[in-house]
Amino acid sequence: MITGFLPFHKGAMGHARPLGGPLSDHHGFIAGPGTELVLAEVLKGAGIGALDFHGALGSQRAFARHARETDGSWVMDLSQGFDAYIASRTAMEPKAFRNLRARRRKLEEAAEGFTVRINDTRRHVLDTAIKWKSAQYRRTGHFDVFSVGWTNQLIRNLVAGGLDNASGLVSSLEIGGELAAIHVGMRSDRVLHYWFPVYDPDFSRFGPGLALLMEIAEALACEGLSEIHLGPGEYSFKAELSSWQFPLMAGYAAAPSLAGAARQIAERVERTAERLPLGALSELPGKAFRRIDRHAAFRAA
C-alpha cells in the first residue's frame, strides 16, 4: 500500500536532491494528513546514500531531525481580496506602499503608455524572459540556470499546459510598446509561485518588476487566487509585500554509504573551517561546496 511519495533526482554515487534541484523552492513528502514517514527508512528503501534539501516544509517532521538551518517562504495573502491586502500591508509598510503608488503614477503619466498582459502567450515573450534571465545570472556571477537543457524544457512544458492542477504563467509589462518586465511563474487555482521575474534596466525608473507583480496580484485575486508565494530570501521587497511566512528547513540526511560518508566529511570540513579565526577565509570551504553542489544538482537533474 502506497503511503506517500518523495520526488527526487539521484545523481552520481546515490547522492539525491529534490525534484527540480535548485529550482525547487519548496519540497518534501506528498502524503495524506497525519502520515508519519521516517526519512532514513525512505532513503534506504530508495537506494539513496545522501539527500540534500534546502526548502523542505517546516511542517514535515521527517526532515526536522536532519535540518541544519531554518528559513521561511514569504507569502502575499490575497484571501480577503486585493483591496483588503493593500489596506493591511499599507498599514504595516506605509513608506514602501507610498513608493509603489508613486511608481504607478509614473507609469500612468508616461507619454508612451503601458500595457499589462497577465497571461501572455506570445512565444517571443517567454524567449525574451529566458534570454534576459540568463544574461542577469552571468552579469551577477551566478550559475546560469538556463544553460542546462532540462530547465528550458521544464519551463516550456509548464507554460504549454497539460497538467491537471498546475500550469506555467507568463505575464508582461510593456511601456511604449517595448517589453519592460516579464514574470514566468507557475500557478494552481489558489496559489501562484513567484519564480522568474526579470526586467529591462532601461525602464528601472518605473520599477517595472514590482509594478508587474502588483498588477498580477490584483488581476488574479479577482479570479480567486488566495496566495502568492515569493519564496525564501532576505529581500526587502519580499518582507514589505508579504503578509506572513511559512517555515522551511535546509540540511541533509545520510545513510551508511559512500555518498553518505562523503557528505558527512564535507560538512565536517565546512564546520571546522567556520570555527577557525581566519575571517572571510573561513567561509571559503562552505562557499566552494555550495557552488559545487549547485552545479551538480543541475547536472544530475
The quaternary structure here is: single chain
Q: Span from first to last CA?
A: 28 Å
Number of extended strands? 12
The shape is globular
* Share of residues in helices: 40-55%
Entry keywords:
301 residues; globular; single chain; ten-stranded mixed sheet; 12 strands; two-stranded antiparallel ribbon; alpha+beta
Describe the structure.
The chain is an alpha+beta fold. Helix content is 41%, strand content 26%. The protein has 10 helices and 12 strands. The protein has helices spanning 39-46, 61-64, 82-92, 94-109, 123-139, 149-160, 208-221, 236-241, 258-275, 284-300, and strands spanning 4-5, 8-10, 15-18, 30-31, 50-57, 67-77, 114-117, 167-175, 178-187, 191-199, 227-231, 244-254. The radius of gyration is 21 Å and the shape is globular.
List the helices and strands and how they pair.
Elements: E1 4-5, E2 8-10, E3 15-18, E4 30-31, H1 39-46, E5 50-57, H2 61-64, E6 67-77, H3 82-92, H4 94-109, E7 114-117, H5 123-139, H6 149-160, E8 167-175, E9 178-187, E10 191-199, H7 208-221, E11 227-231, H8 236-241, E12 244-254, H9 258-275, H10 284-300
Parallel strand pairs: 3-5, 10-11
Antiparallel strand pairs: 1-4, 2-3, 5-12, 6-11, 6-12, 7-8, 8-9, 9-10
Summarize the structure.
The protein is an alpha+beta fold and 301 residues long. The chain contains ten helices and twelve strands. It is 41% helix and 26% strand.
